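#onboarding

Welcome to the new folks! Below is a worked example of what a typical request in this channel looks like: someone posts a single protein sequence, and someone else replies with the predicted structure as tokens. Don't worry about understanding the tokens yet, we'll cover that in week two.

Example request:
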Amino acid sequence: MADKNERRDFISDAVKMGGAAGMAALAMAVPAKGDHHKVEKNQAGVRIGNLVFTSGLTGTRKGGESDFGGSVEEQTRTILQKHKDNLEAIGSSLENVLKVTVFQSDIKVEKPAMNKAYAEFFKTHQPSRSAVGVEFPDSRTKVEIELIAYIPE
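Example response:
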């Protein structure tokens, strides 16, 4: 048990470092099962060893293209629920998220609303996060979220 606690502390410290140094430390800290150089695609994204890198998801609802959009809060909830479901399908969870990148169309105005919905999914666990203002190709997309997580052994 001490080894797992030490590794978790090391991972936590690496995340706090941020940037490339933190991710390099994470790559060394999270042991891989089997061939750690093998890249596997799965429901959540791309897996390398025990790390999973997701694609950015947007707020498309179950109805498809015609049922797309909503408020930034609604889109954030939809996206994070999709990420949660995908991570759980591969044996991980939002508790194992190391890094989140949020892309927003109106970051100056809508970041507080996005933060409100985000906090519903990350109540106690606070992964490293970046938020970036972007211009999406359509006016209905308000937010896109990608993340990096680990899959515990």
